[in-house]
Amino acid sequence: MTKPTYYITTPIYYPSDNLHIGHAYCTTIADTLARYHRAKGEDVFFLTGSDEHGLKIQRKAMEQGVTPIEYVDKIIANFKLLWEKLHITNDDFIRTSEARHHKVVQDVLQQIFEQGDIYKKNYEGLYCVPCESYWLDRQVEDGKCPDCGRPVETMQEESYFFKLSKYQDRLLEHIEKNPEFIQPASRRNEMVNFIKQGLEDLCITRTTFDWGVPVPFDEKHVVYVWFDALLNYFTGIGYGADKELFNKFWPANLHLVGKEIVRFHTIIWPIMLMAMGQELPKQVYGHGWLVVEGDKMSKSKGNVIDPLGLIEEFGADSIRYFLLREINLGSDGNFSRDALITRINADLANDLGNLLNRTVSMIDKYHGGVMTNLTSEPLEDVDKDLLEMAKATVANYQTAMDKMEINAAIKDVWALISRTNKYIDETMPWILAKDEAKAARLQLVMYNLAEVLRIVAILVSPFIPTTSPKIYTQLGLAVPSEFLLADATWGGIPTGTKVAKADPIYPRIEVTEAGETVIGNVKKEAPKVATVPKAEEKASGDNGEISIDDFAKIDLRVATVVAAERVPKTDKLLKLLVKIGEEERTIVSGIAEHYEPEALIGRNVIVIANLKPAKLRGIESRGMLLAASDGEGNLVLADAPDIKSGSKVK
Fold first, then answer.
1. pTM, rounded to two decimals
2. Could you tell me which CATH class the domain 338-487 is placed in?
3. What gap in Å lies between CA 58 and CA 60, rounded to an integer?
4. Average per-residue pLDDT for the chain
């Protein structure tokens, strides 16, 4: 019997810099779904990779005096290290710089060109280099990219164009007939509205740089990075090289992408496929962003979090669990260190870890570690309730996971864990152990506890994959090569199985006054996130001296004050709207006794741009102004009157 197949992809990540916790979020979701479908017995292909071409990469490489491939090679090594540390089980890692991918892109381009869907003309228009996106005048406001908010550039060059407009009506019809094609529904509505405004033909080649796939029918041109990148989903499953593999897995079941690139995957990609005569993917899902303390991650804001540091401190399964449990797929989610520690302590240490530790300890104490499956022992109502909930949890879990409601599936499992902890309090094994007449009853209770844990281990294996083997090992069970949902039925622990008592799988985390975490008896430093010490704190050392490395963390920028007003009911605070380059932000500063608001407008001041946001009188302040005080009531702002806003102070 042929297994059902499941093909899942992440976006291929752009190696302009190392990955952050937001990228880890997307890939963890995809890995969880891949593991779940394997647990269902399906034949899974999971693809991720790197999108390495384009003007942005070429410029970055030139800045560092290296070739583009030398530049990306180092970053790709870190990508792969992160996926290894997160226990990502991708079947392939596609790099768009590989020869196998170049051949796919050139073959597809040649096919579409020969059938008349590509033509040449001069292009003049707007282009966002960071996003590698073309925009129409009507789509751009104040010269900024509508996706990332950064300035667009005017491009003028000879180009080849792909006839997107030819397929507009056909694409709309497909979306209307297949509402599951774009999910969640909010993303589908956005795309339908975008298409109905009218699709322009897409410029798909460039001549102003050469870091890309050469166009087979005109060697002066390289392929536009998005036309190139989207075809990775074909390269990874052997298009043009392994017909059997390609036919087995195409069309893809799921393209999982961030919401900012849904447009490319639901307009450009399906029209490319239509032009090729290929089936469209079954679903494109645009997940939300991961924000930090309520603010989108940005190097300029100093709130980019390195997932490798978190994994080193807390362990991969803890990070995976938090990302999956805390955030509803499709919505933006907030990352907070405090919330992470709270979730680990409450769910992993107190609930799951404590249940396993108590169960194994009691079996070891009362029965010499050996379990007995007493099928003849009558069940009491409390037992029936637990068994029925275990069965219902497996069913509810599968329903939720099939609908990609990962958060709901986890909640179902943890409800069973909580119920089982309560079961211990209701059955009171310590009382049963004192009555020889209750010996069989005690054995039944112990078996029930262990059996719930075995089923839980199977259900959580897609989320926290290194935890499930630890549960099996402590229960005295052989760890399977794959955890299968078919085994999540009652009665899987054979009589005579002996537990193996060990340390708690999730020791509680304590946080010292210095911000260090103590996990078990091991003290770990907090991960390095770009922040600036409070003014009243010493950065390092008893004498307040800091190293050059400490100083390098402080991002000083020139900012132009564009608006200023007094904060009501205060004598000292001014609310300033400043512009740092193209970015606007609010800063609350205690300078009202020294400066009138109107005197500051248009002034170039110096700010600490990567200071952690703080709320003052209910206003979020993002940054700090530099000023000098003589201690006698006189204060003067540091300024840079002739320096461009956004310039870095060195």
1. 0.78
2. mainly alpha
3. 5
4. 90
